[in-house]
Amino acid sequence: MIDVKLLIDNAFEAQKNAYTPYSHFNVGAALLAANGKIYKGCNIENAAYTPTNCAERTAFFTAIAEGVKDFTAIAIVGNKDGIKMGEGDYCAPCAVCRQVMAEFCDLDTFKIYIVKNREDYLEYTLGELLPLAFTGKNLE
């Protein structure tokens, strides 16, 4: 059973560490591994833009660097500086982050929670957000 509220709380906690001097759009993600551990990530911008890394990928890459490659769910929060929690809008993962998720997660069972606040969130499977996904199976 996924404790969605705990995942959301961790995403908001991660959001506090976002480094966004250019967009001022702060994103936090909390990735739940199958072993029950939560990996947090925030977006990290760069003046050259291309090296910028999204919160979701930061969480995935942190977990993978620790040898974890089996995941259950992710919660994602995001809003501009100065907008209070729950007053922003939903923050869906970008296409690049969805593709990274497809590399490591089951399209039919991996849950993505797109969050406004602790009580207001949307739930999707990865397959719903990335139909006709390109995966390693396409290269066989």
Topology:
Elements: H1 4-15, E1 25-33, E2 38-42, H2 55-65, E3 71-80, H3 95-104, E4 111-115, E5 121-125, H4 126-129
Parallel strand pairs: 3-4
Antiparallel strand pairs: 1-2, 1-3, 4-5
Write a structural description.
This protein has 140 residues and is an alpha+beta fold. It is built from 4 helices and 5 strands. It has a 5-stranded mixed β-sheet with strand order 2-1-3-4-5. The radius of gyration is 14 Å and the shape is globular.
Task: Write a concise synopsis of the structure shown.
With 140 residues, this protein is an alpha+beta fold.
The CATH class assignment is: Alpha Beta
- Helix percentage: 25-40%
Ends apart, CA distance between termini: 34 Å
CATH topology: Cytidine Deaminase, domain 2
- Give the total of domains: 1
Strand percentage: 15-25%
Inertia-based shape: globular
Please, what is the CATH homologous superfamily? Cytidine Deaminase, domain 2
Major sheet, described briefly?
Answer: 5 strands, mixed
CATH architecture: 3-Layer(aba) Sandwich
Q: Overall pLDDT, averaged?
A: 95
Using brief descriptors, characterize the structure shown.
Cytidine Deaminase, domain 2; 4 helices; 140 residues; five-stranded mixed beta sheet; 26% helix; single chain; 24% strand
